[in-house]
């Protein structure tokens, strides 16, 4: 994560103190600030503004730890693209604000007194996932979160927050609608890549029940990954302020050196036969194979080679002459525009699985199923024998 400079640090500190004050005062600062105003002065970890309504001595030490942890996390990273994307527009569009700013989130759930379920107007830039996003008395009343598939999923407490923002923006049905009635292997210039969006952990977690993936007809999909008690919510694994995965508790049930090494399955899904590696390695291998297969299909069936560039939207680009370089028109890269229904749905699933770096822990079964089915679907017109690949679903 990029470090913020001192100026924005100070600005941020002032703004979140304001937010703690406005939104968190009742929920978070449970201790009486007047009881011992000098307590903990010696261990306050960084300079707090001494003037104004905020006095260092009024900050509870417990809060201080939470603040410090949060401050180092992605949620507080003011420099991140996830919060800077709208700088030039100088306001965040309502459609984006519910997840890209605490203020937008509160507007979306009606926690600011506005109507629930909609952000009424543009939101000021500069917000992050602040304290009042999760520490908000009104959140307790949000008992259901709508997913892009249309699913209304019941939630409890702070889970409502994580599930709202980490659900992605599309579902398999969007792809289904886009390709409906078209011949599977005929390129259609109207088809555009459907991007599931980013950090789609909650969508992975709900699996087939959440319907985030393109689910092939006639196939069964694993539902929500229940894992094992007491691992039942996002915060069973993620410390809610640092956002890091706390590995120690995993070791009650797993034997591994890192989360990435965890494996329970005794079968190899990737055809390597290697079951000493974490399940993540199987997912990565099959994802790699799927991307290669999509490219082969683009070249051999759609007759229009593609290049994938993960650093720029929309990620899949045209390389009509097959020289491995992205085609340019007027100095601009040409987005891939020779999609067929078959390649589009496979690319969508590939992106969905890889948009969640934690899919191996959030729902390894669903990830493996989507990858397998997508490879199998492409193998048919390519004349690939699935048996030769030795994959497991
Ligand atoms: C359902 C919640 C949600 C909505 C709605 C949403 N986003 Fe996001 N978006 C996220 C999350 C979560 C991330 C964080 C991904 C990461 O960087 O870890 C993200 C990341 C991004 C990024 C950074 C991508 C990168 O490569 O780092 C951009 C740009 C972005 N969103 C644009 C938009 C735009 C534009 C809209 C509105 C049209 C929008 N988002 C609506 C949840 C959402
Ligand atoms: C992404 C959601 C989220 C954000 C943002 C967040 N918190 Fe928390 N916070 C939580 C959760 C979840 C808990 C644990 C509650 C529980 O266990 O019942 C918690 C607990 C706390 C606690 C209790 C002590 C502890 O660490 O468990 C304090 C104090 C606290 N938060 C302060 C803050 C402050 C101050 C901020 C802003 C700097 C903040 N939180 C931002 C989710 C969040
Ligand atoms: C208001 C929307 C919102 C809410 C609520 C929210 N997140 Fe996030 N989360 C984001 C965005 C946006 C990012 C990307 C931030 C960035 O790129 O700096 C992110 C990043 C993350 C990351 C990756 C951190 C990193 O360093 O890259 C994790 C893990 C995470 N969130 C978990 C959670 C959990 C767990 C909860 C609930 C307790 C939660 N989030 C609630 C929007 C949200
Ligand atoms: C079983 C434990 C577990 C649960 C439950 C869990 N996660 Fe994760 N999460 C992980 C692991 C492990 C990673 C990957 C960390 C890595 O490999 O660096 C991860 C990664 C993430 C990331 C990507 C972080 C990054 O570095 O970009 C986000 C965002 C995230 N989780 C959010 C959530 C949300 C939201 C929930 C609840 C819907 C959730 N997680 C539930 C274990 C868990
Ligand atoms: C209470 C016991 C328990 C704890 C604690 C626990 N797990 Fe698990 N984990 C399981 C069980 C049981 C499964 C198999 C579930 C299934 O496949 O339905 C599993 C499966 C997994 C898998 C998939 C392995 C595979 O081969 O399919 C991963 C990855 C994983 N856990 C990661 C984690 C991480 C990371 C943590 C800590 C943040 C954690 N688990 C904590 C019991 C636990």
From TrEMBL:
Key words of the record: Signal
Gene3D superfamilies linked to this entry: Flavocytochrome C3, Chain A
Transmembrane segments: none
Signal peptide: 1-27
Listed InterPro entries: Cyt_c7-like, Multihaem_cyt_sf
Annotated Cytochrome c7-like domain residues: 83-167
SUPFAM superfamilies for the chain: Multiheme cytochromes
The protein's name: Cytochrome c7
């Amino acid at each position: 994560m990029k470090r913020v400079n001192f100026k924005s640090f100070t600005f941020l500190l002032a703004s979140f103190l304001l937010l703690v004050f406005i939104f968190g005062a009742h929920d978070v600062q449970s201790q009486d600030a007047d009881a011992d105003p000098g307590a903990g002065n010696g261990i306050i970890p960084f300079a707090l503004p001494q003037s104004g309504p905020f006095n260092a001595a009024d900050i509870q030490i417990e809060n201080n730890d939470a603040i410090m942890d949060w401050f180092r996390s992605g949620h507080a990273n003011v420099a991140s693209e996830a919060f800077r994307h709208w700088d030039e527009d100088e306001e965040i569009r309502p459609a984006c604000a519910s997840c890209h700013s605490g203020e937008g989130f509160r507007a979306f759930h009606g926690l600011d007194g506005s109507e629930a379920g909609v952000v009424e107007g543009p939101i000021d830039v500069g917000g992050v996932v602040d304290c009042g996003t999760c520490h908000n008395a009104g959140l307790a009343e949000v008992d259901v979160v709508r997913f892009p598939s249309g699913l209304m999923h019941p939630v409890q407490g702070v889970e409502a927050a994580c599930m709202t923002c980490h659900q992605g923006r599309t579902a398999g049905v969007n792809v289904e609608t886009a390709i409906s009635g078209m011949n599977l292997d005929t390129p259609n210039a109207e088809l555009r890549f459907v991007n599931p969006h980013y950090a789609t952990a909650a969508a992975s977690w709900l699996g087939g029940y959440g319907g985030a993936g393109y689910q092939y007809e006639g196939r069964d999909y694993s539902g929500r990954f229940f894992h094992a008690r007491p691992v039942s919510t996002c915060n069973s694994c993620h410390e809610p302020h640092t956002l890091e995965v706390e590995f120690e508790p995993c070791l009650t049930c797993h034997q591994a050196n890192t989360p990435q090494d965890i494996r329970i399955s005794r079968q190899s899904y990737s055809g390597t036969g290697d079951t000493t590696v974490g399940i993540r390695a199987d997912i990565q291998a099959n994802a790699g194979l799927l991307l290669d297969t999509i490219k082969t299909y683009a070249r051999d069936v759609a007759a229009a080679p593609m290049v994938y560039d993960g650093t720029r939207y929309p990620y899949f680009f045209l390389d009509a002459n097959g020289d491995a370089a992205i085609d340019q028109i007027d100095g601009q890269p040409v987005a891939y525009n020779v999609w067929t229904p078959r390649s589009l749905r496979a690319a969508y699933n590939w992106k969905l699985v890889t948009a969640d770096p934690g899919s191996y822990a959030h729902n390894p079964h669903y990830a493996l199923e989507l990858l397998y089915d997508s490879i199998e679907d492409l193998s048919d017109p390519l004349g690939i024998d699935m048996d030769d690949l030795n994959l497991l679903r």
